[in-house]
Amino acid sequence: MYKIFARYSNSLIPLAFDSDMAEALKNLYSSAFYDKLGIAVSKVYPLFNVAEFRSEIYSDEFENMELKERMRHTTVVLHKFLPQNYTDDIEIVYKTINQLKINGIGEEGLAFMFLPDYIEFYGLDYFETSVPALEFVTQFVSCEFAVRPFLLKYGERMMAQMLKWSLHESHKVRRLASEGSRPRLPWAMGIPFLKENPEVVLPILENLKNDSSEWVRRSVANNLNDIAKSHPNLVIETAKRWKNISAETDAIIKHGSRTLLKQGHLEILSYYGLDHREVGISNVNIHNPKIKIGDSLEFSFSLANLKNAEQKIRLEYAIYYKKQNGQNTKKVYKISERIYPACAEIVITRKQKFIPITTRVFHSGEHHLAITVNGAENEKYSFDLVI
Q1: Domain for residue 156, yes or no?
Q2: What DSSP designation does 113 have?
Q3: Are 158 and 28 within one domain?
Q4: Which of 48, 72, 104, 165 is deepest in the core (most CB within 10 A)?
């Protein structure tokens, strides 16, 4: 069962999925899809041979290809049937997208991610042609992954272009500026200079901090969260600079600080007025200290606001998962963040599922649970996972 999602363009992609979902995703490259694509390309480029294109697509290896393999396969086969002059090829890509829209084919279908891949694979040496192509295609299907090799090769020149994109009239192009420049974009090619010197990203984020699109603002927050993992002070300085500009900007700061909050970073906790010293945690109880794969860990605890005044309390819990080498790896889960009345006491119960996903492998043995209050972790309690 898949539980974790990423957004590719406006489509949700599961980052963790079972075999049925993997099969469904790769089957986006279906006979019906290639029919629609072939009709559109042949309409704008009459020399395009639809029958031969389909024959090349359905090679002996096609059935065993996974999603990304089918994407690249589509890119390479399409290239064989275009003029193979990159400038002319991209002109056909423009016209094909316009024809797809005329034909009622919706924007942002996941299968069309081969279009950004075409620019990345064949256009890296053609900066002047590929940059406008990325700008155009991203308004049909996101180019956030395709832009990464251009950043790696062209560095400052590409960052200057992305700064211009951050002022573009299309929110999809503005999002490309932010999402494409994330230092730690999931699934994407790493860009060392963005990790080492994320200050170069800040002018882009400054332009987008009050963007009218929630989709863009969410990307800005994710970019800040990436930066926080290696340069926390840069994010804290940004948070102070942006504080109270607007409700939307405050929300960006909060979401962009989520890693720092989970880590209990003192300065960001202070920024949000979170103090653990006058909060009491007691009666921690693991109701089923021995569980199996597929079960849920059930636990409860008592919380007390020890102040004679209301205060904000951020509640989380950490699970220390046992690794194959016998060590434990920590994962923090948020419970709530809200104002508690003076001297309030409350009992809180929670469940944590232990269902296999592709991003975590479970191992038998002793695991641990700890309750975290305003960034401060309390005593660990043990439970056993039996596989």
Answers
A1: yes
A2: G
A3: yes
A4: 165
Contact 256, 225 (CB under 8 A): yes
Domain holding 318, by residue range, is 279-386
pTM recorded for the entire structure: 0.82
| CA gap 247, 225 in Å, rounded | 18
- Contact predicate 176/147, CB 8 Å: yes
Q: Which two tokens stand for residue 212?
A: 């009218």
Task: Give the integer Cα–Cα distance in Å for 284 and 143.
Answer: 48
Is 370 in contact with 317 (CB distance < 8 Å)? yes
Cα–Cα distances in Å, from 252 out to 43, 48, 257, 314, 352?
44, 47, 8, 18, 28
Beta bridge partners of 311: 340
Give the side-chain half-sphere CA count within 13 A for 137. Answer: 27
Strands (E), the chain: 5-8, 11-14, 279-286, 290-292, 296-305, 311-322, 328-340, 345-353, 365-373, 376-386
The total number of structural domains that make up the chain:
2
| Sign of the alpha-carbon torsion through 168, 200, 156, 154 | negative
Q: 125-158: per-residue pLDDT in tens?
A: 999 999 999 999 999 999 999 999 999 999 999 9
What would the two tokens of residue 319 be? Answer: 């699970």
